[in-house]
Amino acid sequence: MCKTTYDEVKSNYHDQATKVNQVVTDYQKEYQAYLAKVAASGKDVVSSSQVVQRLTIQSEPQANLAISNIKGTLTKNERKESYSFNRKDMMGGGYTLNFSDNASFTATYTNLKNVTYQDKKINKITVDFTLTKNSNVDFALDLLDNPYYGWSFANGYMTATYKFYYEDGNQVNFEKGTAYLAPASLNNYLNITDHFGIETAEVVSGGQALGLYGSSVTAHGNKLYADKANSWKTADGGFQATPNAEEITDYNMPDNWDTADSPYRYYGAGLVALEGNSVTLKIYVQNSSAPANLSRPDYYTNNYNAMWYNVGTVIPETPGIPNKPTVSYNYSTVIACLRLHR
């Protein structure tokens, strides 16, 4: 015996379709309102939801590092098997290199397993370094085997030119709007009684600097740095990216943002939109605008030039993105009766 009429099936379908369409419409309105907030925060600011990323660089603990074409006076070349620049993440081995004068060299990373562009494997990255001293002591550099974790340096500034190569040896050419690097851990130390330094990544060629919505780091032309303090000095002399009300200007700073797995990593990160077959970045600590009343002005302005630089392709998720809705519907197979009127 037929229990479901054609009109009842049609009505049920109509009701479900109306509910689904309303959910989608509400989400679209919420997302457009969010994008309006992003646009209002600056012309060179984007949300992670707006970025189409086809370049992948993940941790490469098995990578091999070779250093070649050294120019300059190398005063120290020491191998170490364990580094941790943020005192939390174990970053593997690498080399401590000191130079007594300006220098340059090439770092070549091979045996890569987790680097791709548009789903095509990349097995080699080269970085051409130019190191410039601005201190009376040696330029100091800790360079890791794992390109994911980058390097730490002191007593000067540097430029780094990246090139990527496919397994067949051809150099990668990045199409506009498909590949981004995410420089992270860009600290700003503005405790005027103790410390001053603004870590900066500047795009020299091959890309455009973009700010991430909600980050303390913003794009100033092609420079990425934080205008406001986002870090503080601990009692044991180390640095932690956690708030200190005496020296920050943003009292809503997320806690512990400066680790590899932090959901708040966006707070110290920016973006470089790549285009072409290489990208050159200038990496340095700004301190020329330090206040005049620092307790040790020579140390905190002229001699403090130390920073950890790292760059990846996992774009930290920016805050406030509306959750995509989940819609449900009831699907069933029924035999519908047509009521015929004679």
TrEMBL record:
Superkingdom of this entry's organism? Answer: Bacteria
What is the name attached to this protein's record? Glucan-binding protein C/Surface antigen I/II V-domain domain-containing protein
Transmembrane portions of the chain:
none
Organism field: Ligilactobacillus agilis
Q: Which SUPFAM superfamilies match?
A: V-region of surface antigen I/II (SA I/II, PAC) (SSF74914)
Enumerate the Gene3D superfamilies for this protein: Major cell-surface adhesin PAc (2.60.530.10)
- Outline the extent of the Glucan-binding protein C/Surface antigen I/II V-domain domain: 93-309
